[in-house]
């Protein structure tokens, strides 16, 4: 049962490579973890764990990595990261206490400043590797970085995921930043991992490209299945994605598919390239177009489509 005091929401751990995000996620979720282990475990991939507590459900999201945008695709990917950050309740930046604040940390914090409404907190990770004087200095540098970039830290918390020091305090603080809300996920398997949402969004964008005027807001995409293909060698993974592209009318279906299926093929190819760039793994994309009559006006269909 969920009482009025129950809180729920999404927190994303970000930080430069090796900052300790995955280790901290695991420490936070502890034994009651649901990790989507069938997802590609590349540094760019999104892994999510859920902290189930009597008073809260804290859903941990690792958003895809930011890139210094050199290409249009890079910019597009960063837009996606910003969009993901804007959708979560809080973003926590991890700054390892055994290293100085560097350009990578400054870049991430500056980007985070562009997402005004999301709550931000700072975590000084790996405190077991630094002495108290150094930790105090580090916390001061994190505060200064916030002031310099215009990010207001809701909390600055030192933790060690390895020794466990302050991990439960961090969980309490994060829960305190969440809105009141019911349990969002049942115990058990997760179906709508952020990767699937991002993949669906990329497919939708590719499908709308060039036909926006003809198909305003009429396309919804649902990733039905996503998983690494079995029996592949470790160095040659392949991610299978089965997705349905919903339109409202058969005339729209014709537009999306194109003559002899040529347009759908092109949509699939472009979406696949973007998903591969985002997740860092080769993708086999199986795309089907279906008609969900007037889905925009039907609450049941909207819920089914995750909207
Ligand atoms: N001593 C110590 N080591 C830690 C701690 N947290 C993480 N590490 C180590 O730091 C390294 C990087 O940790 P990860 O959790 O993989 O870091 P990450 O930020 O997820 O890394 P990427 O996936 O590359 O972005 C690993 O060798 C961890 O064992 C900590 O609290 N104390």
Automatic annotation (TrEMBL):
Region (G2): 41-45
Positions of region (G3): 62-65
Segments for region (G1): 15-22
Stretches assigned to the KH type-2 domain: 211-293
Keyword Glycosyltransferase: no
HAMAP family: GTPase_Era
Natural source organism: Nocardioides marinquilinus
Membrane topology: Peripheral membrane protein
Stretches for region G4: 125-128
Binding site residues for GTP: 15-22, 62-66, 125-128
Subcellular location: Cytoplasm; Cell membrane
Keywords of this entry: Cell membrane, Cytoplasm, GTP-binding, Membrane, Nucleotide-binding, Ribosome biogenesis, RNA-binding, rRNA-binding
UniProt function note: An essential GTPase that binds both GDP and GTP, with rapid nucleotide exchange. Plays a role in 16S rRNA processing and 30S ribosomal subunit biogenesis and possibly also in cell cycle regulation and energy metabolism.
Matching Gene3D superfamilies: 3.30.300.20, P-loop containing nucleotide triphosphate hydrolases (3.40.50.300)
Chief place where the protein resides: cytoplasm
Subunit record text: Monomer.
Location of the region described as G5 in the Swiss-Prot/TrEMBL record: 159-161
Residue ranges of domain Era-type G in the record: 7-180
Keyword Transmembrane helix attached: no
UniProt name for this protein: GTPase Era
Superkingdom in the source lineage: Bacteria
């Amino acid at each position: 049962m969920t009482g009025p005091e129950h809180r729920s929401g999404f927190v994303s751990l970000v930080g430069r490579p090796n900052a300790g995000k995955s280790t901290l996620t695991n420490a936070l979720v502890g034994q009651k973890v649901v990790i989507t282990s069938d997802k590609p475990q590349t540094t760019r991939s999104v892994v999510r764990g859920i902290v189930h507590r009597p008073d809260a459900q804290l859903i941990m999201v690792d958003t895809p990595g930011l890139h210094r945008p050199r290409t249009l695709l890079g910019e597009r990917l960063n837009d996606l990261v910003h969009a993901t950050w804007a959708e979560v309740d809080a973003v926590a930046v991890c700054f390892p206490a055994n290293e100085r604040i560097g350009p990578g940390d400054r870049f991430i914090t500056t980007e985070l400043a562009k997402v005004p409404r999301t709550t931000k907190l700072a975590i000084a990770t790996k405190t077991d590797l630094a002495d108290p004087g150094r930790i105090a200095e580090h916390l001061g540098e994190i505060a200064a970085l916030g002031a310099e970039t215009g990010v207001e830290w809701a909390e600055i918390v030192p933790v060690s995921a390895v020794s466990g020091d302050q991990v439960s305090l961090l969980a309490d603080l994060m829960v305190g930043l969440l809105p009141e809300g019911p349990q969002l996920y049942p115990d058990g398997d997760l179906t709508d991992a952020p990767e699937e949402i991002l993949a669906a969004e990329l497919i939708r964008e590719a499908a709308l490209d060039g036909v926006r005027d003809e198909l305003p807001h009429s396309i919804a995409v649902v990733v039905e299945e996503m998983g690494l293909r079995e029996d592949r060698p470790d160095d040659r993974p392949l991610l299978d994605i089965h997705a349905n592209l919903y339109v409202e009318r058969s005339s729209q279906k014709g537009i999306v598919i194109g003559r002899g299926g040529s347009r759908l093929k092109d949509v699939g190819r472009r979406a696949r390239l973007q998903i591969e760039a985002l997740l860092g793994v080769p993708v086999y994309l199986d795309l089907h177009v279906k008609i969900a009559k007037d889905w925009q006006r039907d609450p049941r269909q909207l819920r089914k489509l995750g909207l």
